[in-house]
Amino acid sequence: MAPKSKDASTEEKIKEAARTVFTQKGYSATRTRDIAEEAGINLALLNYYFRSKEKLFELVMVEKVAKLFGVIAPIVNNQNTSLDEKVTLIADAYITMLTQNPGLPLFVLSEIRNNPEHFGNKMQAGKLLTESYFVKQLVERRPDIHPLHFIINVLSMCIFPFIAKPVLESTGILSANQLSDFTEERKVLIVKWFKAMIDS
Prior knowledge:
Blueprint lengths: L7 H22 L2 H8 L3 H7 L3 H18 L2 H4 L6 H18 L3 H11 L10 H6 L2 H9 L5 H17 L1 H6 L5 H24 L1
Helix pairs in contact: 1-2, 1-4, 1-7, 2-3, 4-7, 6-10, 6-12, 10-12
């Protein structure tokens, strides 16, 4: 018999289980039964709270994408900081966030490739990449180069070490501790590389 009202703690338990299972298996390989087992509840209760795997995935995916892109939104729209200050803040905020969520980039990029229809316009990255004050500053500084080049370079320099983490660790190129130090060093180096790029 279904409960008369939904319980916030049970709903959050299901969402947390979904975050775990979707991150481990991806959307296609995940069954609702897997999520129910991870949450420690029966399948009927999960279906009462979330009617479909797709609906649950959409909630988790939008949350993860928001986390990935959300950290830079207030930075790139701040009209009181210089271009160089913005890059410093972006590198620090992004690398800190990814250090706390190391599996996030691979999960989001994998699902963007495999299931773009699951989030589509919800990502809202387009506005960040075309309408932010950061873009205006880039165009003013280097009108001869499309600003997307600089944006993609900065974000790639922040994100790629986390995408390459499994390979770097499994091959012994960097240990977990060394990788942590390596990514911290990049907070400073990315700013230097950006200045070299934009002033060249």
